[in-house]
Design brief:
Helix content is 45%, strand content 5%. By secondary structure, it is mostly helical. It has a domain at 67-197. It is globular and about 45 Å long.
Length: 213
Amino acid sequence: MRSPLDDPGWLGALEQTEEACRRYLEELRWPDGISCPRCEGRSITPIPARRRFYCGRCRHFFSLTSGTAFHNSHLPIWKWFLTIELVLDSDGGLPANELTEVLGGNYATAWFVEHRIRAALLEAAGVRRHRPPAGCPTAERTYAASRVGRHHQLGLKYLPAYEAERRWRTSQRDNPHAFRDTVLALLRAEPLSKDELTGRRPTPGRREPTRSA
């Protein structure tokens, strides 16, 4: 299966681009046909006007991104795909302030989309997301100075996700299906909880403090 990003001029008419990306995501998620994420039933009725599906078996409404790391995001799928491609192609990671210049919007949106990608890669590596013990400023400073580099100082609880991204990017260098496999990791990941998606946003131009997300 070819990624939409494999085609020259893929970023053309944005409406067509978005539909191509959504078709690609749908084929990856449901290669054998759409099934309900709640009961796995296949009595599915599409609701195109709302971009939703209805399961006749359990009466559940769901979307293409329900139950995945893509869910509860206002970003179109093509911006997610572009972010994944940029993250994979970067040498030392892609700071959110640079991503903001590409995607538009605000810094918090760029930071959160990258954070979701990192959390999914952490889960793909078999590491359970957890909140590490607080009160380790020395460990944070040491790790940030020696490993994180251009991302400046980070809260200790986010460092495993940054490390998972670095390892994933390195392991995918020679993989011709790196983009597909990264998208699959996001489809298989548990969505971030409400607590993980809320809290104080970092401020552009300042060092990233310990965040409560």
